[in-house]
């Protein structure tokens, strides 16, 4: 796979986006208020720390019907137009959003394609389903993920 090839795989983009919705790399992020302001009637003083709970946002049924189900079609072009612009924030947003987002997504796509060309994934009984998660600085599996690879 090369750069051009991976740009022509919209379903792969949708699968990755849905994976990042369900399991965002940063489960929450914080910002500091630069100046006093009022948001929805609530006064926020300069210097206050504001936390965005991305994991909860990405599982909010107001934005994501059946949030615990893996549905890549949530990320069709039409579906994205219908959604609130800040309902999906796996990399943050605005001037302090992740600077490496595009490179990270490109690396993810190329790596997945290379692996999937050579191997088929099989689940192992040691992997808990549903997956139990832990959140420290980033979100990850509590007890690991075990898979078996079979050559194609």
TrEMBL record:
Tell me the GO molecular function terms.
heme binding; hydroperoxy icosatetraenoate dehydratase activity; iron ion binding; oxidoreductase activity, acting on paired donors, with incorporation or reduction of molecular oxygen; steroid hydroxylase activity
**Protein's cellular compartments:** Endoplasmic reticulum membrane
Q: Which UniProt keywords apply?
A: Endoplasmic reticulum, Fatty acid metabolism, Heme, Iron, Lipid metabolism, Lyase, Membrane, Metal-binding, Monooxygenase, Oxidoreductase, Transmembrane, Transmembrane helix
What domain of life?
Answer: Eukaryota
* Broad class of where this protein is predominantly found: endoplasmic reticulum
Q: Report the EC number(s), separated by commas if there are several.
A: 4.2.1.152
Q: Which reaction does it catalyse?
A: (15S)-hydroperoxy-(5Z,8Z,11Z,13E)-eicosatetraenoate = 15-oxo-(5Z,8Z,11Z,13E)-eicosatetraenoate + H2O
Cofactor(s) needed by this chain: heme
Under PROSITE patterns, the record lists: CYTOCHROME_P450
Protein name as catalogued: hydroperoxy icosatetraenoate dehydratase
Give the encoding gene's name. Answer: Tbxas1
